[in-house]
Design a protein that fits this description.
The protein has 212 residues and is mainly α. 65% of the residues lie in helices and 4% in strands. It has a two-stranded antiparallel ribbon with strand order 1-2. A hairpin with a 2-residue loop joins strand 1 and strand 2. The N and C termini lie far apart (75 Å).
Length: 212
């Protein structure tokens, strides 16, 4: 057997030294993944205020110092956890039609906002908590969500389903507004017809009265 320099003598022969196993992506990638997962778990269980960086570290099985070195604050960890959740668990619909995309988008929001994690996220991004450090968390979350949703509107314009003058941000605000009102103000139930009602009203208005 050709020697590679990693062998150890065993009796009269040689045996390759076992190499230590490494985690895919390295230690940094592993820490990021388990910390973000732990953050979402604890948010769904306790909410933002009752969760500490010490809790996150213990739940993730890492040293609390690792959290401070990488993120600095609890709010920064939460911000990245929400953006990662948005990117991996809430993909932008692409059904081929504006109506189909909007219906799938709104139905997904309604399903998620009624889960323990969805309720915890809603409380953070809608402004239930007064902590100043959460202001940037909210801005980052909504920038990301609107950027993803704008893709739906842009595709619709390219297909000729919407006038080019339609304001994408305004259309998305109008679409999700009734859902957030029911979740945070009126406490009305989310019936199955709500997405269809919202989409029908918005598409009629967008096609007949361009928003600029």
């Amino acid at each position: 057997m050709e020697k590679t320099g990693d062998e150890i003598p065993v009796g009269e022969g040689w045996q390759a030294t076992p190499r230590p196993k490494t985690r895919p992506g390295g230690r940094s990638s592993y820490v990021r993944r388990v910390v973000l997962e732990a953050t979402l778990d604890l948010l769904s269980q306790r909410g933002y205020e009752a969760m500490t960086t010490k809790d996150i570290a213990a739940h993730a099985g890492v040293n609390e110092a690792s959290l401070f070195r990488r993120w600095g604050t609890k709010a920064a960890i939460v911000a990245e956890a929400l953006q990662n959740f948005s990117a991996t668990e809430t993909p932008t619909p692409d059904t081929g039609t504006l109506q189909g995309d909007m219906l799938e988008l709104l139905r997904g929001i309604i399903v998620r906002i009624q889960t323990p994690l969805g309720k915890a996220i809603d409380q953070i991004v809608v402004g239930h908590y007064p902590q100043p450090e959460l202001a940037e968390v909210r801005r980052a979350y909504w920038r990301d969500r609107f950027s993803r949703a704008e893709t739906i509107i842009q595709r619709a314009k390219e297909r000729g389903e919407l006038p080019l003058a339609v304001d994408a941000n305004f259309l998305i605000e109008a679409a999700i507004g009734p859902i957030l009102v029911r979740a945070n103000a009126t406490n009305q139930p989310f019936d199955d017809r709500l997405p269809e009602q919202i989409v029908a009203l918005l598409l009629y208005g967008a096609k007949n009265e361009p928003m600029s």
